[in-house]
Write a structure and sequence with these properties.
The structure is a single chain. The protein is built from twelve helices and twelve strands. The protein has 450 residues and is of the alpha+beta class. A hairpin with a 3-residue loop joins strand 11 and strand 12. Helix 1 packs antiparallel against helix 2, helix 7 packs across helix 12 and helix 9 runs antiparallel to helix 12.
Length: 450
């Protein structure tokens, strides 16, 4: 419509100027020409002059029109190619009519090499079939259709998630031109959403553990006070009983059960972080070496305990009693996971975490760590089970065989000492627990002046 109005304006202006020129020039020839010969010559001259003038006018008018169209086309071209999203246009048969620079990076080809070709010339058949199916869905719907698809950029080899909008495109007369597509890179957004969900889950878990810890600590504290009374009276009764009294056996059972309950209470208090800490500088190699005898007896005769100490191990600062609890709990769990003969391997080494390493770890900071790793050849764990192993009172052991506090206690102690606890398990292949404690930075003393 705009083109028709513009052409009509030019034609009207040309007709008006021509009419005025003809009338005025004919009148002037009549006045200036004394005879027929002069009139003929002036008429010829007038005609040539008219042709020259109108040709000049048409030249500048067409030049102005073409320049305007070229300017608008250049602006549109710049706009399309500046858009960071992938933009392309296909005809109804799937042949490309145009695309922008971002789309060129997808196919790894220039627009001139893309136009006139189809998806089957650039991507595998199954992916090209998928693209064509989405084109048809947009054409059949008669409106925009949105979908997400993972694609590999041919230019960089990077795999990105595209949110693709496809819509039928029509000209001014309503005739179908083809399918217009716009693809937006949603990879970063997808990563941020997953990270947000992960952090939200960590927050919920931390809040839950804090609530459970407070409850367990309060119950354990009151329970510990009552156990103190039970143990004191039971010990006093045993002291006052004659050695031959048969009742001593029953009182002894009371003392045994009370002490076992006291150990459980100590675990609950440790989980609730209500036990006083006594951190010391510890060499993990020496700490494990001191426990080897106990650990071998815990493992039993059918399980081989392998000890692989690291060289030049960095010192750590940790409560030695708590460290013993961590190691013994992990070895006991490893032993219980092994059916029959097997192997438990303890290994220490130094490790350095970068900022990139910490991105996927919970509550981790870059830096230098000393690592203690406990690996077993047991039954391993399914992912669903693995997600619950650090929850207090969660256990897969038969009734009376476990309290469900062992791994919860290990996690609590590691966090209390600003460490990191990682677990990796494969069903049928075993489990690895990795404890990473921050390296103790020993500051050298300045030499004393003489």
């Amino acid at each position: 419509m705009a083109a028709t109005i513009g052409a009509a304006k030019i034609a009207g202006l040309y007709a008006l100027i021509s009419a005025v020129w003809i009338l005025a020039s004919d009148r002037l020839v009549q006045i200036l020409a004394p005879d027929a010969a002069w009139m003929t010559g002036l008429s010829i001259l007038k005609g040539w002059f008219f042709v020259a003038v109108t040709a000049t006018m048409l030249f500048f008018m067409v030049k102005h029109l073409v320049a305007g169209l070229a300017s608008r086309e250049a602006q549109l071209h710049t706009l399309i190619h500046t858009i960071p999203d992938l933009v392309w246009l296909k005809d109804p048969d799937g042949k490309y009519l145009a695309c922008n620079l971002a789309f060129e990076r997808f196919f790894g080809a220039r627009e001139a090499d893309i136009v006139g070709k189809s998806d089957y010339d650039f991507v595998p058949k199954d992916q090209a079939d998928f693209f064509r199916q989405k084109d048809r869905e947009a054409l059949e719907a008669g409106g925009p259709r949105v979908n997400e698809e993972w694609v590999t950029m041919a230019g960089s080899g990077e795999r990105v998630l595209l949110e693709t909008l496809k819509t039928p495109m029509r000209d001014g007369a309503g005739a179908l031109v083809g399918v217009l597509g716009i693809g937006r890179d949603m990879t970063l957004h997808h990563t941020l959403v997953r990270e947000q969900a992960r952090l939200q889950a960590q927050l919920h878990q931390a809040q839950k553990m804090e609530t459970v810890g407070r409850f367990a600590g309060g119950v354990a504290h009151d329970y510990n006070n009552m156990l103190g009374v039970i143990l004191a009276n039971a010990d006093l009764a045993l002291y006052q009983m004659d050695p031959g009294r048969p009742e001593r056996k029953f009182v002894g059972e009371i003392v045994k059960a009370a002490r076992h309950s006291a150990d459980l209470t100590a675990q609950m208090l440790a989980f609730a972080r209500r036990q006083p800490l006594d951190p010391k500088v510890v060499d993990l190699n020496q700490a494990v070496e001191d426990l080897r005898g106990v650990l071998e007896r815990m493992a039993g005769p059918r399980i081989q305990l392998v000890w692989a100490p690291g060289q030049d191990l960095w010192p750590v600062r940790v409560d030695p009693t708590q460290l013993d609890q961590v190691v013994t709990n992990l070895v006991v769990n490893a032993r219980d996971a092994i059916q029959g003969e097997g192997r438990i391997e303890l290994e220490t080494r130094n490790a350095v975490l970068t900022r990139d390493d910490c991105g996927a770890l919970e509550e981790a900071s870059p830096g230098e760590y000393t690592t203690l790793q406990v690996t077993d050849t047991g039954c391993g764990m399914e992912p669903d089970l693995l997600a619950h192993i650090f929850e207090p009172f969660f256990t897969t052991k038969p009734s009376g065989k476990g309290t469900g506090l062992g791994l919860a206690l290990v996690q609590s102690i590691v966090k209390q000492n600003r460490g990191i606890l990682l677990v990796d398990s494969t069903p049928g292949q075993g489990t690895t627990f990795r404890i990473m404690l921050p390296r103790l930075q020993v500051v050298a003393e300045a030499p004393k002046e003489a």
